[in-house]
């Protein structure tokens, strides 16, 4: 007797017609034609069943604040930073918690159950840290929320940046962040990377730095981050987020940099939606795309994942908590249009992100946590193409969200009466 069985599921690795049995919040069997009873049976009907989506890079303290206290008229990164500086003194814990919980509701409906959020520690009040720590506890039954102490105005540049970050970590934020390219000088940026890696090593924590989020090819803090990762024994615990300057770097320099990053086992987190929107703003034509070198980094064996970064905040007025939208943009910006490319992009929002976040028990193997999503698509390539409805979302083997399938009814003479985009328009096998 199982608690729940998902029948006739297609799996991300291409296997079709499998049943997934769940008991006590864990996957108990993945087989064809399981002969057993269950408290609940869900027929996937030949649709994709996947581990849930993971967002390894987000700013939950700013989410859904669009229009407060005013709109970003230019839509640029610099005006967004200035606007956040205007909003930050007005933030209250209650408002931060309310917006974050609303976003988490949306995330669950989209099958997004794992989120790493950077938390601005530049305001010494640390109202952002207090709010997000409360949210982490509230959403724990349905979302695993990781928090990064992020000195958004610069670890050295902000008036009380060093002390505030230390206090945030003492409060229970579990990852050390940084933004070396936003310090006053390249040298201060280098020193911030060293100091923050030292803190992580002393406390036994992970590191996730906004690194070289600029079009400047001479912004090379990722080189320092990789070197300090090796120096402090942090291999496998350090992420470099954005890395957009790599898009503009000289190819010869990159041929040295990527092997160094691979040696340090740096986790690479790109943010396709925001990178394509905000980078290249000083260019006329041709305009740079801004996304880091995803294909080359993957080919070198680095773990590359994609983050959403922002949703309806001072930097990005769009977004919908949909990691498939992120993957869809990543395919276009990175020109990752091959069949294997698309599969790797799907991994960038699932298994790769889970690895970057250090998640345990994630996946579809027997014994993994029964965190699953049923999508209105036949396979991972179709999922990225269609950005389909998340029909059922499971957390710990329990249904936490259901959404009706998107089915269109037509009244056209001589044509089908019903269209299911997820199954009726499959490409040739």
From TrEMBL:
Pfam family name, one: Amidohydro_3
One annotated GO molecular function: metal ion binding
SUPFAM superfamilies given in the database record: Composite domain of metallo-dependent hydrolases, Metallo-dependent hydrolases
Keywords, sorted A to Z: Hydrolase, Metal-binding
GO biological process terms on file: cytosine catabolic process
InterPro entries found in the cross-reference section: Amidohydro_3, Metal-dep_hydrolase_composite, Metal_Hydrolase, Metallo-hydrolase_Enzymes
Domain Amidohydrolase: 40-400
Signal peptide: none
CDD domains in alphabetical order: Bact_CD
Name listed for the protein in its UniProt record: Cytosine deaminase
Source species: Xaviernesmea oryzae
């Amino acid at each position: 007797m199982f608690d729940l069985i998902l029948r006739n599921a297609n799996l991300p690795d291409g296997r079709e017609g499998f049943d997934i049995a769940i008991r006590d919040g864990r996957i108990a069997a993945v087989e064809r034609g399981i002969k057993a009873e269950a408290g609940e049976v869900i027929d996937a009907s030949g649709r994709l069943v996947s581990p849930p989506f993971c967002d390894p890079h987000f700013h939950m303290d700013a989410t859904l604040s669009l229009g407060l206290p005013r709109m970003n008229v230019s839509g640029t990164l610099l005006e967004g930073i200035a606007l956040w500086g205007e909003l930050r003194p007005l933030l209250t814990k209650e408002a931060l918690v309310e917006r974050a919980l609303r976003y988490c509701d949306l995330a669950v409906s989209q099958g997004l159950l794992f989120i790493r959020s950077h938390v601005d520690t530049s305001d010494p009040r640390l109202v952002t840290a207090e709010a997000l720590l409360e949210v982490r506890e509230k959403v724990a039954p349905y979302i695993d929320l990781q928090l990064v102490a992020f000195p958004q105005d610069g670890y050295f540049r902000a008036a009380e940046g060093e002390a505030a970050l230390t206090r945030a970590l003492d409060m229970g934020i579990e990852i050390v962040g940084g933004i070396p390219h936003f310090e006053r000088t390249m040298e201060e940026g280098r020193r911030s990377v060293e100091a923050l890696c030292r803190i992580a090593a002393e406390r036994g924590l992970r590191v996730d730095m906004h690194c070289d989020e600029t079009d400047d090819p001479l912004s090379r803090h990722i080189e320092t981050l990789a070197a300090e990762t090796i120096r402090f024994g942090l291999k496998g615990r350090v992420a470099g987020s954005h890395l957009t300057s790599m898009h503009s770097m000289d190819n010869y320099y990159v041929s040295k940099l990527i092997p160094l990053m691979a040696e340090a086992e740096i986790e690479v987190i790109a943010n396709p939606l925001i990178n394509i929107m905000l980078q290249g703003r000083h260019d006329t034509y041709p305009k740079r795309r801004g996304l880091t070198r995803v294909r080359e980094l993957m080919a070198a064996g680095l773990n590359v994942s994609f983050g959403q970064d922002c949703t309806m905040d001072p930097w990005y007025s769009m977004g919908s908590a949909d990691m498939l939208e992120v993957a869809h943009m990543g395919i276009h910006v990175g020109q990752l249009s091959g069949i294997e490319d698309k599969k790797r992009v799907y991994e960038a929002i699932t298994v790769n992100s889970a690895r970057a976040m250090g998640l345990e028990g994630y996946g579809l193997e027997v014994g993994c946590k029964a965190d699953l999503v049923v999508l209105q698509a036949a396979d991972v390539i179709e999922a990225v193409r269609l950005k389909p409805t998340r029909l059922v979302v499971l957390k710990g083997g329990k249904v936490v969200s259901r959404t009706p399938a998107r089915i269109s009814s037509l009244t056209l003479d001589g044509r089908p009466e019903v269209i299911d985009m997820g199954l009726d328009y499959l490409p040739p096998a």
